[in-house]
Specification:
Blueprint (H helix, E strand, L loop, with lengths): L12 E5 L5 E5 L16 E5 L2 E5 L10 H18 L3 H13 L5 E2 L3 E3 L2 E7 L7 E6 L6 E6 H4 L7 E7 L5 E7 L7 E7 L10 E9 L5 E7 L5 E8 L6 E5 L6 E6 L5 E7 L4 E7 L8 E2 L8 E6 L4 E7 L2 E9 L11 E4 L5 E8 L3 E8 L2 E8 L6 E3 L7 E6 L7 E8 L2 E9 L4 E7 L11 E9 L5 E9 L10 E4 L17 H4 L4 E5 L9 H5 L7 H16 L8 E6 L1 H12 L6 E5 L5 H6 L10 H4 L5 H10 L12 E7 L8 H13 L6 E6 L10 H18 L5
Helix pairs in contact: 2-12
């Protein structure tokens, strides 16, 4: 699920002169607008473990019901009317964000199998163009995909990537026209003629080529959108051969090639357990061999070297993972495995990249990234050092096996993202490309801090903040706090060109690294999932209280934002502590937890029992029900709330934000603004074009600004 930075919106502001020196800002309330839509009450009763639940809005689940679409359209019309006075502010923010983005830009080229590959954005165009040059950057440019042409006339379009054949002449690629994150079409084209060849696959997930340049292996989804089968098919074959089917509904399966070009791997994984099988890429008709049979709560990944395998390995005693060095033959006997990098209780293994003579490892220690490079020939271990107290770094590795360099990116809250190349032989880093801010940006105009909040159980929770120099800590500043807090995804700090439309207007921007992510290691994740899930919410509340208690902001100026599982976080904290927040932005929020997790026909449900628990078991049912945001809406005052959704969302189905809004409207006792913005053309990520995406961000930010009386 995707960590989202969308837009913020709201209503209207009137300014009344109090005297010649001071103006009083009147922030309009719900009662200043026409009455909002009221969803029809159609009670559905559910009983589990002797407990009855009545769901008045279960009917909103069916988007084929004309009444559902009528309701969604009514909500969108209401949102437009409430936000009408912010149109000028939205345009101003849009122009600001656009001014911080280099519209005509290129990625730095990467050398892969004899070609330099890169992509380009062009002013006025919504999507990227993917290109390559043969052998030299001075060679003739070849257009592989112009996504703008592919998306012409489409209301939504996602280009999900491509795989080039070993002979560089053919390419398989994935896309959709719905905005869904799960339902892709795979096609194949000849790079010499630009014409489609072979076959089309509906519902494709992953793809890789065998070395014969004719055979493809690819994954497909089932009716719940779970990647569950791997197929093999030659370009001229009339039908595919089923190679592997993952029958355990908690597992997803995928196929991939390797850097050494020697193997094809099929991986199967749940949230806690994994298994891999492989064949030689030269012999696509061979039967796949299991590398190591699955064992509950054991996760491993195989990284081939031409002389050995390296295996990242995690179990209950080694939660942060370790690395084994394993022989190419005889590895079935685990006594042949040698520890290459031992487990470290204080450092989580985040990534591995292998070249001929070196292995690069990305670690996370105390919430910050480390990158080390270890020699395979007995040389010294080298470490890439980062100077700032709060930052994010990500290892990019090198796609060429013989390489002696690796790439990595570096960013912080006030440092634009920069791509570096590290020379392993000399230990030197060279800057390749820095994110440009055309309208100008000076990092020294801003202060970045790392704070630690104390959770109710005494645990210290890290938080990164950024604000404009000269800020007075007197509680008068508006603030926005963001987090995610699920699936072990760390909420990394990074430079956001859009966020400075808030920061430059006096906002403190905070990122809370709460439990449920892996910011402080794998145990940090374990302590925020299943029967520990409420730690995620109380950690976020503690961080919010820290901002207020230390004078950075106050509860009548604090906004909170989160998307998807971060939207669950928004729903939970607004139920638990509505008094802490002036505004909540819940983007595509996962809020109907108990109903969704009880319905195994929905996407993601069964596979997520290991994240949330299985509510078919009474202990988990009771625990999930105790925090599920939709089920815990009560007759109390709530903050101003913006809820977003996508009609084609495959991750959080549209009915969750719709039902959530309907029930909030019925029960809330305040006069604050509540609006639902449902994208009727796209899915989980909202608008798919970059300019349309900026418009959505400007909308969200206008809502937040308007709610604290900032209207320009």
């Amino acid at each position: 699920m995707k960590q989202l930075y969308l837009t913020i919106i709201y209503g209207m502001i009137m300014i009344t002169a109090c005297n010649t020196n001071k103006e009083e800002v009147k922030i309009l309330k719900q009662s200043d607008f026409p009455a909002p839509p009221v969803a029809e009450v159609v009670p559905d009763t559910f009983e589990n473990f002797g407990q009855k639940r009545i769901d008045n809005y279960y009917w909103l689940k069916d988007k084929n019901n004309p009444k559902v679409i009528e309701y969604l359209n009514a909500e969108n019309e209401y949102t437009e009317s409430v936000m009408a006075s912010t149109k000028e502010l939205q345009q101003t923010i849009y122009d600001e964000i656009l001014g911080r983005i280099k519209e005509d830009d290129e990625s730095y080229p990467s050398y892969i199998n004899g070609y330099w590959y890169y992509s380009r954005t062009e002013k006025g165009k919504q999507y990227r163009t993917y290109l390559r040059r043969k052998g030299s950057l001075d060679a003739e440019e070849e257009v592989i995909f112009d996504v703008n042409k592919m998306a012409e006339g489409k209301s939504a379009f996602i280009f999900a990537g491509y795989s080039v054949s070993p002979d560089n002449n053919k390419v398989a690629y994935l896309f959709n026209e719905t905005g869904s994150y799960a339902e892709y079409v795979m096609k194949i084209k000849d790079l010499n003629t630009d014409e489609e060849i072979g076959f089309t696959v509906i519902g494709a997930t992953s793809v890789t080529w065998a070395n014969d340049n004719n055979t493809l292996f690819y994954g497909v989804i089932d009716q719940t959108l779970r990647p569950y089968q791997i197929h093999r098919r030659g370009l001229n074959e009339h039908q595919s051969t089923l190679i592997y089917e993952e029958k355990d509904a908690k597992f997803r399966t995928y196929v991939s090639g390797t850097k050494t070009k020697e193997y094809i791997f099929i991986g199967s994984a749940s949230s806690t357990t994994s298994e891999e099988r492989y064949i030689s890429a030269d012999r696509p008709l061979d039967e796949f061999k299991v590398f190591m049979p699955r064992v509950k709560d054991v996760e491993y990944s195989v990284f081939p070297h031409k002389e050995k395998f390296f295996v990242s390995y995690k179990d209950r005693e080694n939660l942060n993972s370790m690395i084994y060095e394993v022989p190419l033959t005889g590895y079935e006997d685990k006594s042949t495995w040698k520890v290459f990098l031992p487990h470290d209780d204080d450092a989580r293994l985040e990534g591995i990249d292998i070249v001929k003579d070196y292995i690069s490892v990305e670690l996370r220690r105390e919430g910050l990234t480390e990158i080390i490079v270890m020699s395979l020939n007995g040389g010294d271990t080298k470490k890439i050092v980062f100077p700032e107290p709060v930052y994010s770094a990500s290892m990019g590795g090198n796609p060429e096996y013989e390489a002696t360099t690796i790439r990595y990116t570096y960013t912080s809250l006030n440092r634009p993202t920069t791509l570096y190349e590290y020379n392993i032989l000399t230990g030197e880093s060279i800057k390749l490309k820095e994110q440009e801010v055309p309208s100008g940006f000076n990092p020294d105009d801003y202060t970045v801090e790392r704070l630690w909040a104390t959770a109710p159980d005494g645990v210290l929770v890290p938080m990164a903040i950024v604000y404009k120099n000269g800020l007075k800590k007197d509680g008068s500043n508006p603030a926005l706090i963001y987090s995610y807090g699920s699936y072990g995804y760390s909420t990394d700090v990074h430079f956001s060109a859009s966020m400075y439309s808030l920061i430059d207007r006096g906002f403190v921007y905070a990122i809370a690294q709460i439990r449920g992510g892996s910011d402080l290691g794998e145990q940090w994740y374990e302590d925020g999932k299943l029967l520990n899930k409420k730690n995620t919410f109380t950690d976020f509340i503690a961080c919010s209280e820290k901002l207020i208690n230390d004078g950075y902001t106050s509860s009548d100026k604090l906004a909170a934002m989160g998307g998807s599982a971060g939207g669950l976080l928004m729903g939970a904290v607004s139920n638990m502590r509505p008094d802490l927040y002036q505004t909540i932005v819940a983007q595509v929020p996962f809020v109907d937890v108990i109903n969704t997790m009880l319905d195994d026909t929905l996407p993601l449900t069964t596979g997520e029992y290991e994240e949330w628990g299985n509510p078919n078991e009474e202990e988990y049912y009771n625990y999930i029900l105790s925090y599920s945001p939709y089920d815990n809406i009560s007759a109390q005052d709530y903050p101003n709330i913006l809820v977003t959704g996508g009609i084609n969302d495959s991750q959080v189905l549209f009915h969750e934000p719709a039902k959530y809004t309907a029930k909030l409207r019925a029960l809330k006792t305040d006069n604050n603004i509540l609006i639902l913005k449902m994208n009727m053309e796209s899915g989980h990520g909202g608008a798919t074009g970059r300019y349309e995406g900026i418009k959505e961000t400007a909308f969200d930010f206008a809502f937040i600004l308007n709610r604290v009386g900032i209207y320009k």
